């Protein structure tokens, strides 16, 4: 593969946070965003607003939750995380149309785009440990 083919393939397989936000605002019914990060829930409490939360380790059991008629956008932690790439390959092998959100949740938060923080939903009395 030469450099030009590589960059065309990369553009076909990924979407930037800015482009995804613009596309999803224009045609929200066309996309299905999935947070595929693994790890404890308290570490994953901040998610992209309106993302479905289906950790990679639960994907096999929850595949029925992912619509085949939408473009699937998957994301994980950051550029160093390959969980979203693994999920994208898994879904592509099963006939889904999939792209990875470049930079994951880290890039999204860096841009100050909308997030949901589930840790804010916890009642103070639930966290006292007494």
Automatic annotation (TrEMBL):
PROSITE patterns in the cross-refs: RHODANESE_3 (PS50206)
The organism's place on the tree of life at top rank: Bacteria
Residue span(s) of domain Rhodanese: 27-117
One Pfam family hit: Rhodanese
InterPro entries, A to Z: GlpE_sulfurtransferase, Rhodanese-like_dom, Rhodanese-like_dom_sf
Protein's name according to its UniProt entry: Rhodanese-related sulfurtransferase
């Amino acid at each position: 593969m030469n450099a030009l083919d590589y960059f065309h393939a990369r553009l076909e397989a990924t979407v930037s946070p800015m482009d995804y936000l613009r596309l999803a605002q224009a045609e929200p019914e066309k996309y299905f965003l999935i947070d595929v990060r693994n790890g404890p829930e308290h570490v994953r409490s901040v998610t992209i607003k309106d993302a479905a939360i289906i950790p990679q380790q639960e994907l096999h059991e929850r595949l029925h939750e992912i619509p085949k008629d939408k473009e699937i956008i998957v994301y994980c932690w950051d550029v160093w995380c390959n969980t979203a790439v693994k999920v994208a390959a898994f879904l592509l092998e099963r006939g889904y149309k999939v792209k990875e959100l470049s930079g994951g949740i880290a890039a999204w938060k860096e841009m100050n785009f909308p997030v949901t923080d589930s840790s804010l939903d916890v009642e103070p009395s639930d966290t006292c440990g007494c």
